[in-house]
Amino acid sequence: MAAGSCGNPPTRPRGPGHRRASRSPAGPDRYGLLECSARSPDPTPPGRRDFGADSGRTRPVPVPEGPPPGRGRNRALPRPPPARRTWPADPSGCAGTAHQGLEGQPAPDRPVQHRAAHRPGDRQRLAARRLPDGQPPEAFGRFEASRPNELWVGDALHGPKIAGHKAYLFAFVDDNSRAVVGHRWGGAEDSVRLAAALRPALASRGVPEGVYVDNGSPFVDSALLRACARLGIKLIHSTPGRPQGRGKIERFFRTVREQFLVEVDADKVADLATLNRLFTAWVEQVYHRRVHSETGQPPLERWLAGAPFPMPTPDQLREAFRWSELRRVTKTATVSLQNNTYNVDPSLVGRQVELIFDPFDLTDIEVRFQQRSFGIAVPHQITRHAHQKAKPETPAAEPAPASGIDYLRLIDTAWTKELGQRINYEVFLPGQAGPVEAVDLSEEP
Fold this sequence. Notes:
The chain is of the alpha+beta class. The chain has eight helices and twelve strands.
């Protein structure tokens, strides 16, 4: 091809004044109408060879035969169908495998991409996906404790209204057997109702190695922290915003809604004591005896297989569930708690002491300093007999309905009758011809 033609462009300049052929947006030489344009050749510099007599001139490119494969109006042009590729028979005779072709012949020995995630580009795009909160998706494995009483999972469920007040269920489920080790319906979601569910569970089911709970206010209260520390229980809180670890207790709450609460008639359940009695009967008679779909065993039977368990003594439970607060002794050898004042040992003046007490009885408080007991604090001034957080289990009774007796009307009638029995001074007025009969004011009109 002569120099300056529009074939394959050379890798270096072809001569003075040479310009590369312009290319259309549709591609190089798409329709065979592309021409090369060049400026007028400059005088040939010395030391360079001549590129020919036609150097720098414009010359048409020959048009190829047949319709070019293009776009637009050429899209409707017929194209020959692609030839179907057939593969030779497999010499090993392994027909019908995963690599089998359309005609019953096995495909060649090459990797088959079953999913888009197996492709490097698609895998990167899937990894770049984000959840609505902006975090990448994360896979979670299934976890189960290796033996009963290794881990208890606890949480609270909002239940129906009983006697006009909302009820809350605190429950603890054994992670290995799915047995309900502790439960209690209460009138509030606080640490007192939590202790009412956990303390009987520890007394009857033993002491677990760990308790897994969320970050709700009852589960982060100092009372629960002290109880677990006294009994040697490892208290574990879940990561905020990641409830996947509490799936077993949430699944149990779903069973409670679908099988127990649907049968509860709130109008016929008079109080929380009745609700707790019905729930205990359902747990022991139905839930603990039914085969669990995940373990393949009844929860109570699977839990009993790990017995015996370490049991706490009554004194240990009493000590664990007492509350504790720190106070500094004043110069008058007194401490204050919940607006109450107590006298302590004078040797503790200026010291920070620990007050151990029952939240429902603030008249009996033990004073400790550096893990040593300094006796019972003597009440000096008592204004509260229970802690502010220790709300009663049953709400305050509503005022009695009206008796239908008009008390003020009865008083008025008695007073009017008494006035009618006094002396009538009108009969003694001057100018009266005769006495005037007295009027009985006790008679109603």
